[in-house]
Each structure stands twice: as C-alpha cells, then as structure tokens.
Amino acid sequence: PSEEICTLANKLEWKYEMINGHLYKRLYNKFSCLLKGGVTIMVNFKEDERLNKLNHSCAHLMAQAVKHLYSNAKFWVGPVVESGFYYDIDLGDKTLTEEDLPAIEKEMKKIIKDGKRIVRHEISKEEALEMFKDDPYKIDLISRMDDESTTISCYTQGDFTDLCRGPHMETVKSCKYFKLLKVSGAYWKNDKNNKMLQRIYGVCFTNEEDLNNYLQELEDAKNRDHRKIGKDLKIFMTNDLVGKGLPMYLPNGYIIFEELEKYIKGKERKIGYKHVLTPPLGNVELYKTSGHWDHYKDDMFPVMHMDDEEYVLRPMNCPHHMLIYKNEIHSYRDLPIRIGELGHDFRYEASGAVCGLERVRAMCQNDAHLFVRLDQVGEEFAKVVNLILDVYKDFHFDNYTFRLSLRGKEKEKYFDDDEMWDKAENMLRKVLTDLKLDFYEAEDEAAFYGPKLDVQIKSAIGHDVTLSTCQLDFLLPERFDLSYIDEHGEKQRPVVLHRAILGTFDRFTAFILEETKGALPLWLSPTQICVIPVNNSYHLEYAKEVENLLKNKGIRVNLDDREEKVGYRMRESVINKIPYTVIIGNKEQESNTISYRKHGSNETINVTIEEFISKLTNEIKNYK
Ligand code: TSB
Ligand code: ZN
C-alpha cells in the first residue's frame, strides 16, 4: 500500500474502499487490514522498514546470547513476523521453558552494552559450505540456494556470525528496547517426523514507550481471554479425559446458558418462530440426501455402524428441519415458516484450532431455518438482520463487521451449479445493498449450499470469527423436494434461510466474557447479589431476611457469612465480578434498609429493600 493509505489507515478506525462502485467499510486493526478477496495490508511491522530491520537484528542478538549460554546451540531460521520475531533453535536435549528467558535476556543486554557493530560480508557458496560445515541446518539452507555463482551474505557481530540476507541495523546497540515473550516447540520444517526445535518469540521497538504499550496490550489481551475468565469465574472446564474441544459448563456457566436460551427464544417467539427438538444424530442417508456427505464429510465425526445402518453425529440441524417442514402440506399463505432449535451439533474441528468455548467440537447452535417464498427473501432477510442488530444493542456490542461470504475457486467444496450460485450471490448482494448495510466481500467463505451474511468479530487473542450468520439456500429445498401450494394450486419450491443469531451458545459465551471482561450484565450474571453481614453475631438474621426477599423475587443471591473481614469479603465479591455487593450492618438493620455497591464503583448507596428490588427488576427487564 502507498504511504498515503498507511497514514490514512492509521488515523481511521474504519477503512473505506470503493470496489465495483460499492463502498466497503472494514474495521481497521493495528496490524492488518483485510480488504477484499484476501488482499491484506500489513502496517506496523511489515510496512515499517526500520521496525522490520530492528526485529531481525534482535533475532540475531538473541541467537548470539543463546549461543553464549548453550554452546551446542544450532540455528535454523529466525524470521520477522507480524508482531516481532522468532528463532528456531536446536538445543540438543534441552527443552526451554519461560523460566529460561530472563537469563537469555540478561545475556542479550550484556551484548548490547558491549555495543558491537553488525557487519555484512559476502562469500561464495563454496566458502559458505566450508564455513558452516559443522552445522547441518545451515548446510541445508545453503545447499538449496540457486547455483555455484550465488554470493551469500553473512552478518557478524562480535563472536557471532549468521547466514542472512539482511538488511540489519548498524549496531547491536539499536536493539535496546526488546522483550522475549514465549517459547514453544516447533518441528523442523513444520514436519512432525522431524526433530522438535525450540522456538523463542520476542519483540523489539525503537523506544521504551512503544515497547511498554505493546506489552500492556498483550497483558490486557491475556486478562481478557475467555479461557482465563472462564476458569477464574468457574464458568466452564475442560479435561483431556473427556476430550479436546469438549468443554463442560459448570453451574455458573449453565446459568448463563439458560438465561441466553430464555432471552433468545423469547425474542424469536415474538416474531413468529416455533421451536422444535430433534435428535443430535441421524442416518448417513439423511446427509447423503442433503449433500453434507459429499461436501462436509471431512468436518464430521466418523460413522457409527448400528445393525444394518450407518449413523453420524450431526454437524448441522438443517436436514432434520427440512423433514419437519416436509411433514405437512403448506400453502403460500403459511409462509414464512420459521423453525428454531437449540440444536446440539458435532464437528471434527482440527485439534490445533479448538479454543476454549470459541471453537469447540460439541456445540449448541441458536439455529433456525426459515422457509420462504421467493418474493419474501428480501423482507425475511431484513428481519433477521434487524434481529441481529436488536440483540447486539441489548448486549452493547459494537465491534463487529458484516461479511458477504461467497463461493471460492475450489469448486468441489461447494455444490456444483453455477447458475444457482450466481443467482443466490447476486440476490444476497442486492438484499444487503438495499438494506444499506456496510459489508465487505470474501471469497471461499460460503456454506456448501449457498452464500452467507456473516457477522465477524475479533477475539481477545486476535482470532477473526463468525458470530451471527444468515445464509441463503436454494439447494436443500431441491434436495429434499420441498414444496408449497401457490395461489393457483400449483406446487412451488420454497427458499430456505439458515440463520443463527447468537451463533452457538458456546462461541457467544466466549465473546461476551471477553467483551465484558467477565463483568456480565445483571440479568446474565450467575450470582447477581452478594449479601455481606458485617458481624454474624448481630446482623446475620437480618441479612438472611434480605437474602430471602431477593430470592423470592427470583434474584440469584449469595449470602457470604464466612468469618472473614468485611473488606476481604467485599474484595472477593469484586474479584468474582458480582454486579451488586450488599452490606448489612447496624445502620441498615436499625433503619430496615440495605447499603449496596455496584461493581466498578466505590460509592456505597443506602436504600430500602423495596427500592433496591425495584431497581434490580427494572435493570434485569431492560437487559442493562
Ligand atoms: C445457521 N446450517 C447453518 C445454520 O442453520 C450452520 O450450521 N451454519 S454455520 O456452520 O455457520 O454455524 C452456525 C454458527 O455456529 C456460526 O456462525 C458460528 O457462530 C458457530 N460455530 C460454527 N462452528 C463452531 C465451533 N466449532 N465452535 C463454536 N461455534 C461454532
Ligand atoms: Zn442450517
């Protein structure tokens, strides 16, 4: 990108782009900006030459320090990545841990202080082979360089020489503001049959402020990670004995699940959805009929053989819903028919991709299939988009983007019918344009049966994932031979919209935990109120009375009558992100009132119990 674009992009949170006469808007994030069709503009590390060079030099500096500490160290490659650098190192039998990093950092600082120049020199391939003859990794690299006449560059700083294309800073002194971040194992050449090397990650900046800001950002992301919050607040757990990607909701998590269920079903019922319950597995024939077998098998758990039949855990609920629609004859007047389900689905997600509640192998979708006439597609789609916006407003979400997900070039992944795809994609594009929605287009992100409107969000650790989705499908009605009777008594095919507003309860929970940093709104909080009697001998009875009054109103209360100091119990209530902490002491008891503190505030407010209850019920009702 031109310098102009970079400057602009840095200034704007949103990036605008004119493509085929349409204006696209895309949330701009600090490191990369995905425009359309996979064009990625990298700023910061990739675009800033100096930072690039600096991080590269810092990788060499780290390698030199490692060599000082571990004389048997052999080095593979040390590239600059989007946020810093890493180096893959063979340390024999030694497996590094994070505890080894401070010593390496210390040695790096010593080298910086020594302040050697970084000097480039060029040698022939033959000389290089001789120079690195004891280093199989370098020999591997050199051997793959073009031909005998290639000149190879090396960089030397003090007692350390590394093969490198460069460019580098002039002296190691420049690498003053660095930090080693983590270590991990990495197979040589990414092949699990090869030796596991030690990969050390680090980052380097031109000044202390940038480094500190970056480290603070990393720290914030770590604290916002739903896996940490989910553990701290006892929301879910995983255990390898159960299996990868199979989280278990603890009592607190199950309350969130139930509240979300009540919430979304209530909204859906109001606008004409009917909910059903269908089994989470089905005959393979069902998925052969739907097309999942041809296009989605790799994402499914393997077949179970039962008697003479074959069954699979379902990856989606659509086939079941198609048959529910087909169970009755429908008139054009009955449409749209909206069949919703909290459908339990199973997908064989790659083990490296599963992540807490964000990407699981057993999930529960907030799913629905809408059966509509062709002339109702636009209106029904608009209703789904409005429902999404309505829900996001209740949750105060505003960090998301709309993506029109289209078919990609790998045609075998998608149902093969060019005409159907063109029709669906054009129709969807028109619907979105008519809705004046800001969206960008992405190829190879469609479902196998049709294009989608996806709502993309960013997780704390930077994953770009889909939350809500609404999909246009001409295929499944065909495959299941669905019909309705039109006004002339003729059979017609309905169109299907697949949609999930919360996506899955799993991913939604992950997202809301990260958005709120665990401080959930009152209506969703597992424990809504913590009641603390100052002194059990005097105040316990009244505290219990308050507890019961709240409980009778359906409010989730925890009476903390442990023999601990008030300050300690209050702090714990804050750590557990409980929305309101109620303190009961002499004053409250005598005046028949309570004093409360709202999470995040230091103000203590004294009110009557009636006032408090009415405040709470009002807040709950309005999803505050
Ligand atoms: C909307 N048949 C449609 C349905 O009718 C469907 O299954 N669409 S989907 O494949 O896009 O999944 C729906 C939603 O589930 C996604 O938008 C996403 O929010 C969520 N989801 C998908 N895979 C996972 C997963 N592995 N873990 C958690 N949530 C997931
Ligand atoms: Zn579906």
Number of strands: 32
Largest sheet: 8 strands, mixed
Radius of gyration: 30 Å
**Helix and strand composition category:** alpha+beta
**Low-pLDDT ranges:** 12-47
Rounded mean pLDDT score? 89
Give a description of the structure:
This protein is α+β, with helices and mostly antiparallel strands and about 625 residues long. It is about 35% helix and about 25% strand. The protein contains 19 helices and 32 strands. It has an 8-stranded mixed β-sheet with strand order 15-19-20-27-24-23-21-22. Strands 5, 6, 7, 11 and 12 form a 5-stranded antiparallel β-sheet that branches. A 5-stranded mixed β-sheet has the order 29-28-30-31-32, with helices on both faces. The two termini are about 45 Å apart. Mean pLDDT is about 90; it is low at about 10-45. The structure holds 5'-O-(N-(L-threonyl)-sulfamoyl)adenosine (TSB) and zinc ion.
Chart the SSEs and their pairings.
Blueprint: H1 3-11, E1 14-19, E2 22-27, E3 32-34, E4 40-42, H2 49-69, E5 74-75, E6 80-81, E7 84-90, H3 101-114, E8 119-124, H4 125-131, H5 136-143, E9 151-157, E10 160-163, E11 177-187, E12 196-205, H6 208-224, H7 226-232, E13 236-237, E14 248-249, H8 251-270, E15 273-275, E16 281-283, H9 284-290, H10 292-295, E17 304-306, E18 309-313, H11 318-326, E19 337-346, E20 362-372, H12 377-394, E21 401-405, H13 418-434, E22 439-442, E23 452-458, E24 464-473, H14 475-479, E25 484-485, E26 491-492, E27 495-504, H15 505-516, E28 529-533, H16 536-552, E29 557-559, H17 566-575, E30 580-584, H18 586-591, E31 593-598, E32 605-608, H19 609-621
Parallel strand pairs: 15-19, 21-22, 28-29, 28-30
Antiparallel strand pairs: 1-2, 3-4, 5-7, 6-7, 7-12, 8-9, 9-10, 11-12, 13-14, 16-18, 17-18, 19-20, 20-27, 21-23, 23-24, 24-27, 25-26, 30-31, 31-32
Helix pairs in contact: 2-3, 7-15
The site of zinc ion has 5 residues, from loops.
